[in-house]
Amino acid sequence: MKPDGKVQNACVIVLGDIGRSPRMQYHVKSLSENGFTVDFIGYINSPPLEEIRSSPNVRIHELNPFPELELPTILKYLFKTIWQALGLLITLMSIRKPKFILCQNPPAIPAVIVAYMYCLLARSRLIIDWHNYTYSILAIESPNSPVTKIAKKLEAFFGARASHGFCVTKAMQEDLKASWNVRATVLYDRPPQQFQSISLEEKHKLLLRLGENISAFRAVTSAEDVGIVERTAFTAKYNNGDVKYVEKRPGLLISSTSWTPDEDFSTLISALDQYERMCSENPAHYPSLVCIITGKGPLKEKYRQIVAAKKWKRISLEMPWLENEDYPKLLASSDLGVCLHYSSSGLDLPMKVVDMFGCGLPVCAVDFQCIAELVRHGENGFVFQDHQELAEQISNWFYDFPNNIALTNMKQEMQRHLKQFQSLRWAENWKNTVLPIFNE
C-alpha cells in the first residue's frame, strides 16, 4: 500500500492451471494481504485456494483452453500459441491498469512476450518469477528441434527486458546472470502455515475419513479389537477416547507427481519391486507398505495400468486426488516422502519437498545439480541416484518399523533439522524478500 493509503493494483499471470500453481497462488494471497488488489489470470482446471476465491481483493480471470484439434505437431503448437496470445491480450485489456505484472515462467511463450508488450503500452513493470526454463523443458523430448532453439532465444531476449525477477535457487540466479544477463532475486519456496505437523488424533480422523475412498486406509477387523470404537489400518480410537497407533501397522509412503516426463515414476516402481522381494525374504523385519501417489497429469493412466499388473502382496499403491485441505494433513500423517523430480534445467527445486518438510516429513529425493540447496543427505532426508539406492533407503527406514531403536537417534536428529526449516514460513519470507521490491 502506498504511504497515502491508496490501494495498488497488481496482475499475476499463470499460463497454466491456477489450482496447480501453488507458488503463484501464494504470491496472490500475500499481495492481497498486503495492500494490493490483484487480477489473477490463468486456466482453472482445478480450484484455487479458498483464501483466494473468497478474497475481496482478488479477481480471477479464466482463460479459455485451446480446443483439441487433430493437427500436425508444429501446426498445433503454432495455433495454440496464437490462441493463448490473443486470449491473454484480450484479458489484459479488460483489467485495471496494474503497477506491475508478475508472470510465471515457464512458459515464456507466449506469456512473457505478451506481458512485456502490454507493459510497454500500459507503462507497467514486468516482473518474472523464474521457476525453470521453457527451452529446457522442450529439450527433454526435442533437444535439437527448431522450436526449442527459438524458445531459448525468445526466453533470453524478453527475460533480459523485465524490470526485475525472482528465481527459486542460487544456482538459477547465477545462471540467469551469466547466460542472459538477467537480474533475479532468490526467493526460496517456504511452506505456508497449513503445512505443519498434526496430532495423532487429527491423523486418525483424516485416515478414517479418507478410508471411505482409499481402501488401503481401512482396517481389517480383528479379535484383538477389544475396547476399540474406531479403527483404521494405522490407528485406533478406544472407549476412553484415547487414540493410539495399532500394533504392526504398515508404513505410509507418499509422493506427489505431475505425471510428466521430467519425473520418472518407473524409478519408484522398481524400488517397490525390490522392497517386495525383501519383504518376502525377511517378513519379520519389514512391514507392509501403503503408497499414496497424488497428482494429475498425462502419464497417470499409463502408470496406473503398470501398477495394476503388479502381483505385490506386501505393498498397496493408490493414486487418489486429494483436496487442498487434505493434502497437507496426509503429508503430516505419513512416515516417509519420495520426490522423483529431477529438473530439466538442473536449477529448480521441487515445491513438494518444501511442503513435506513443512509437515515434518523426511524425504528421499532424486539427486541433481542443486538439490543440496534444499535436501541435505542424512540431515533432513536422503538423495538417491537410481532405484537401487531408493530401495535401500526405503528398506533401511522401515527395517523393524516402527520400533527400530538403532534408527531412533537419526530420526530425532532429522526432526530437529526439519523444525528449523519450519521456523520460516512463506508469509514472513515473502514480506522480507518480495514486498520491498513490489513497493519500489
Distance between the termini: 11 Å
Which structural class fits the helix and strand makeup?
alpha/beta
Contiguous helical run count: 16
Q: Output the strand order for the largest sheet.
A: 3-2-1-4-5-6-7
What's the topology here?
Layout: E1 8-17, H1 22-32, E2 36-43, H2 50-53, E3 58-62, H3 73-94, E4 100-105, H4 111-122, E5 125-130, H5 134-141, H6 146-159, E6 164-167, H7 170-180, E7 185-186, H8 200-210, E8 228-231, E9 235-238, E10 243-245, E11 251-256, H9 266-281, E12 289-294, H10 300-308, E13 315-318, H11 326-333, E14 336-339, H12 351-358, E15 363-366, E16 381-384, H13 387-398, H14 405-422, H15 426-433, H16 435-438
Helix pairs in contact: 3-4, 5-6, 8-11, 9-13
Describe the structure.
- It is a single chain.
- The chain has 16 helices and 16 strands.
- It has helices at residues 22-32, 50-53, 73-94, 111-122, 134-141, 146-159, 170-180, 200-210, 266-281, 300-308, 326-333, 351-358, 387-398, 405-422, 426-433, 435-438, and strands spanning 8-17, 36-43, 58-62, 100-105, 125-130, 164-167, 185-186, 228-231, 235-238, 243-245, 251-256, 289-294, 315-318, 336-339, 363-366, 381-384.
- A seven-stranded parallel β-sheet has the order 3-2-1-4-5-6-7, with helices on both faces. A six-stranded parallel β-sheet has the order 13-12-11-14-15-16, with helices on both faces.
- β9 (235-238) and β10 (243-245) form a beta hairpin.
- The model has no long low-confidence stretch (mean pLDDT 93).
